[in-house]
Amino acid sequence: MKVCHVIHDLRRGGAEHLLVDLAGVAAGYGIEMSVVSLMPTAGHGYADALRRAGVEVRSLGLRSRWDPRAGSELADVLRELGSDLVHSHMKHADLVAARAATTLDLPMVSSLHVMEDGVGGLGRFKRRLAMRARDRSAVRILAVSGALREWYLGLSGRDPSTVLVLHNGVPAPPDYPPGHRAAVRASLGVPDDSVMAVTVVILRPGKGVDDLLAAAAALPPEPDIRFVIAGSGPEENRLRSEAGRLGLLGERVLFPGFTEDVAGLLAAADLLVHPSHADALATAVIHGMAAGLPVVATDVGGTGEIVEPGHGVLVPAGDPEALGAAIGELAGDPPRRQAMSETARERFAAEFDIRVWAGRLRDVYQEVLSER
Known about the structure:
This protein is of the alpha/beta class.
């Protein structure tokens, strides 16, 4: 089946990376995949990654995500590609895909990736436009978590049977050579016998990194925990300054910046910490489980649907004391961490491997096409 994924752009982001991951396995599930970006893709690494995976990538080259010509231009591309189904991601793509799908009488599936809470008047207006477009044209809506599904149903009033939960998946990490762990730690300056706690995050408001720094500052010197906060973003300089003010920077807390090789970093870690204040689905937590890491995470959004007591600990968001206590307890209990590691890998393989997700996605596509 020929499925065209439509997305606003192909810069770094969770939905964008999901398409790259899907591209690696789609053909094995009978999905001939193409991707259309509303915005130009020049210099966007994910566009290149998709092409290397053999995916046809097109760009409408819009200067604005709200260009009224976009629907007809997308319809022309879909017609040329011979698409059987269009799958949209994010609200701007939903609007454009809905118009094109209606023009061509193509079935449309829409994925919900984020909870758009706390938006102002313009944001609510855009959210409402996208919701109307989905409800008019999408025969299935796929929410990345049950929490997101309930949020959407509370706003839209749509038939619940057409809004499905499809948790995202990620690829299983490769097998690393025996010296990998030591090499990564040496590059970061983390001793072999320290407990390495990794947080993979975009450094922007709402990600809870201030809570993590406060928790790190309050922990006793033993066990020796080194916090590696991997990511970049608008808050990076401020957070570095805060870590320095607390006497943590360069010793207990490290900011190595953005890394494309998340799996390689996690393979050298002992613990995954995710302190976010809001998440529809915490993909970083899934990556941690894939690496066999015990997880300490905040109980927000769909995180509780991923993390179970056997392989992780949930704490309230915005509570540095609870966060620090959970980290400290796991850091000081190697046998418990080892047991959690095995459970995490098992749960990942059963529920969150990209191949599991691709199979479930194929089933949705087949069901939609069978209804035509």
